[in-house]
Amino acid sequence: MTFRTIIEPFRIKVVEPIRLNSPEERRRLIAAAGYNLFALHADDVLIDLLTDSGTSAMSAAQWGALMQGDESYAGARSWYRFEAAVRELMPFRHIIPTHQGRAAEAILFGLLGGPGKCIPSNTHFDTTRAHVEASGADAIDLLDGPGLDTRSRHPFKGNMDLARLERLLAERGADVPCVMSTVTNNAIGGQPVSLENLKATAALAHRHGKPFFIDGCRFAENAYFIKLREPGQAERPVPDIVRDMFAVADGMTMSAKKDAFANMGGWLAFNDDELAAAARNRLILTEGFPTYGGLAGRDLEAIAQGLVEIVDEHYLEYRLRTSAYISERLEALGVPVLQPSGGHAVFVDARAFLPHIPPLQYPGQALAVALYETGGVRACEIGTVMFGRRPDGSEAPAAMDLVRLALPRRVYTQSHADYLVEVFEQIVPRRSALRGYRIASAPPALRHFSARFAPL
Ligand SMILES: Cc1ncc(COP(=O)(O)O)c(C=O)c1O
Question: Which residues make Cβ contacts (< 8 Å) with residue 201, sequence separation at least 6?
Fold first, then answer.
């Protein structure tokens, strides 16, 4: 027997109250925060969709595992459990724990980046791009065509453009130290990458003698999309698909704050012995001894247990249904939403929703502020604020101006989703009254975290 409703596949054991404040109070608070949602006090947010990173609800089994944490400096039991859990899904020779994903990126690009180099990816996420560029290298996005078309319903909009990768490797091969793919492709809407595309990217990289790395933050969601959408994959268990994804790679970076249900953590993995040794040397300088990285033993336990739970297909079915449900309801209101819906988030096309606000006046920021002022919802601009500043300091519109409604894992219920839709219902009729912003002050890198804005 099947049911129409895909329920939250858990019951709630511990609750955390959230606070309702008034629209007047919210207008005052966001103005004081320089119209930057990152600068708000989290207690002043009703539904926090800023990020799915580190915001998961842990299971009873994870909380139990925390108590089993072995805090020995070297060779802790928790380290061996963590290493085995990672290797069960991602069979790399060397696994190197870090305190979060960007620490893995800092080590990787510290070793492989540098002036004159260029690193191609299906799309670099902001922290990845920042680390590539901080090393002096160029971060090059080679997204396949359908990914840039917000209306396209292509099943794998996160794919790498293989023809452009081939051209880059032919023309600038000597400058390319490695090829990367991000799964799912967060910067363009949490869109998946097909197994076929991962295999073809790896084959192309290898033909040119380049290692292929996967940024695996949302590997489980990507694998479930492969199961649902890729011919021949429907009957295969998710862990087998995951192993196939990583079998073609030479290494990976990972933020365990995403598809490992952990509130902190990450890792770097390699097959190459020399690269692994060099990475461990840097790790000791910046993160810690190689059997704990930047993590406590209890964190390693939570990640190990989280990796068992994240590949559960009931969870993944509910997870992808949640974003599809919100996306369908927003579309029904006439809100342009990136289709098909991504795994970890719903992405609203703010440029299409607010066509009267030009990209350099940040339509995504305008919508994100309106969501907070109207309903206490905190979302994240993924557009010209995040990606519009070039390394030379000049400014250009990003490929898209999106607002990401990121969905923390196992945290909110369907009534929270229904409330979110109602907030949009209130914004839709007065959208033409929304105004753009200018940046009043910003740091040179990752400016979206701390820029201050002024309304126009
Ligand atoms: C695709 C991707 N890569 C890397 C990172 C960086 O991970 P962390 O936030 O743990 O440093 C993120 C975080 O949002 C991400 O989404």
Answer: 122, 160, 162, 165, 179, 181, 212
Determine whether 328 is exposed, middle or buried from the number of CB atoms within 10 Å of its CB (0-12, 13-18, 19+).
Answer: middle
Pocket of ligand 1 (CB under 6 A): 53, 100-102, 125, 127-128, 182, 186, 215, 217, 255, 257, 266
Atom of ligand 1 nearest to the CA of 186: 1
CB-CB contact of 104 with 125 (8 Å): no
pLDDT at residue 150 tops 80: no
Q: How many percent of the chain have pLDDT more than 70?
A: 100
CA distances from 222 to 176, 196, 311, 378 (A): 26, 13, 11, 25
* Ligand 1 pocket mutation, candidates 217, 264, 347, criterion most atoms within 8 A of CB: 217
Place of tokens 């994100």: 368
Task: Choose among 19, 21, 35: nearest CA to 437.
Answer: 35
Contacts of 410-416 with CB under 8 Å at 24 or more apart are 410/8, 410/10, 410/56, 410/57, 410/59, 410/261, 410/315, 411/55, 411/56, 411/57, 412/47, 413/8, 414/8, 414/322, 414/325, 416/47
Q: Which residue bears the tokens 């930057």?
A: 36
Q: Which of 445, 419, 410 is nearest to 322 (CA)?
A: 410
| Predicted TM-score (pTM) of this structure | 0.94
pLDDT at 193: 98
> DSSP letter string over 198-256?
HHHHHHHHHHTT--EEEE-TTHHHHHHHHHHHSTT-TTS-HHHHHHHHHHT-SEEEEET
Tokens of 51: 């990020």
Residue 333 neighbours by CB under 8 Å, 6+ apart: 421, 424, 425, 428
Which contiguous run of DSSP H or E holds residue 48?
A: strand 47-48
Is the peptide bond preceding residue 184 cis, with omega within 30 degrees of 0?
Answer: yes
**14 Cβ partners below 8 Å, 6+ apart?**
none
Tell me which amino acid residue 400 is: M
Spatial contact of 278 and 112, defined as CB atoms under 8 Å apart: no
Instruction: Tell me the β-bridge partners of 453.
Output: 439
In angstroms, the CA 145 to CA 131 distance is 26
Cα atoms in the 13 Å half-sphere on the side-chain side of 76: 22
- Alpha-carbon Rg for the chain, nearest whole angstrom, is 21
pLDDT attached to residue 67: 97
* pLDDT band with cut points at 50, 70 and 90 for residue 444: confident
